Amino acid sequence: MWYRLIIGTVALFLIASVQATTLKLSANINLLVLDGYKISGSILKGADGLELEHGEHQILFRVEKSFTVHPGRQILWHSSWQIANFNAQSQSVTIRLPPLTTRQEAHRFEHDPIIQLVNEHGQPIASRQDRLLLRESDDPQQAVRHYNLSGQIASVPRFAHPPQPVSLMSPVRQSSRPKQTEKLLQLWFHQVNSATRQRL
Fold first, then answer.
1. 3-class state of residue 49 by DSSP
2. What pTM does this model have?
3. Residue 16 C-beta-side C-alpha neighbours within 13 Å
4. At a CB cut-off of 8 Å and minimum separation 6, what does 140 contact?
5. What are phi and psi of 64, to 5 degrees?
6. Nearest 5°: CA angle at 112, between 142 and 89?
7. Rg of the chain in Å (alpha carbons)
8. pLDDT in tens, 18-65
9. How far is CA 153 from each of CA 18, 85, 148, 199, rounded to the nearest angstrom?
10. Are 173 and 46 spatial neighbours (Cβ–Cβ below 8 Å)?
């Protein structure tokens, strides 16, 4: 019957949610390129992260943070661009940074960028990381393309010519997945007849 189709749709949605990995983004992370494609700032605006398909991914990002140098005066510090690739199989991936509360710690990070990717349990995820020298005038997508053809430590050759940005599924905003599921269930519940509702 038709309501079985709706149940099936909801089930497929839930299965797809389980098979996705959320790349969590903090306010200090400026993500620029994902899997060979430049990410638009409008996509990330207000998002807590991005939903990625399971499998191999590559990110280009840098760390940005404000420091108070004198009362009432702040400076914006940003790190060099960091490139990393990893295999997404967990529920979430978080970019874990060392403490960056002072300019001295930021300076130390710039010389020795210690970055760790962890899953939802805080356990490290295997990754390969490198630094990408990128000027403000450079095209980041082209820079990553050349990097991926260079055979360096974090290179992923297939991302030099990605067919389409299929790995980028959607931005994740707070509680967006439960709300989407709830809407589907409510739609189905209001469409079924009273007898079916009573049985439920």
1. strand
2. 0.73
3. 13
4. 32, 33, 38, 60, 81, 134
5. -130, 135
6. 60
7. 21
8. 568 999 988 899 999 999 999 877 667 667 789 999 999 999 999 999
9. 31, 9, 9, 59
10. yes
Q: What pairing do the DSSP bridges indicate for beta strands 92-96 and 20-24?
A: parallel
Contacts of residue 148, defined as CB under 8 A and 6 or more positions apart, other chains included, come to 36, 58, 155, 156, 157, 158, 159, 160
Q: Which residue has the tokens 């790190």?
A: 79
Q: CA 81, CA 91: separation in Å to the nearest integer?
A: 26
Structure tokens at 144: 């990553």
What are the tokens at 161? 């010519």
Q: How far is residue 182 from each of residues 14, 37, 86, 128, 144, measured CA to CA in Å?
A: 11, 32, 32, 38, 39
Q: Which two tokens stand for residue 111?
A: 């010389």
Instruction: Look up residue 102 and give its two tokens.
Output: 């002072």
The predicted model gives 126-138 an average pLDDT of: 92
- The contacts of residue 152 (CB under 8 Å, 6+ apart) are 130
What is the distance between the alpha carbons of residues 27 and 67, in angstroms, rounded to a whole number? Answer: 14
Rounded CA separation 21/30 (Å): 19
Query: 158: closest CA among 166, 168, 148, 167?
Result: 148
Contacts of residue 105, Cβ cutoff 8 Å, sequence gap at least 6: 98, 99
Length of the chain: 200
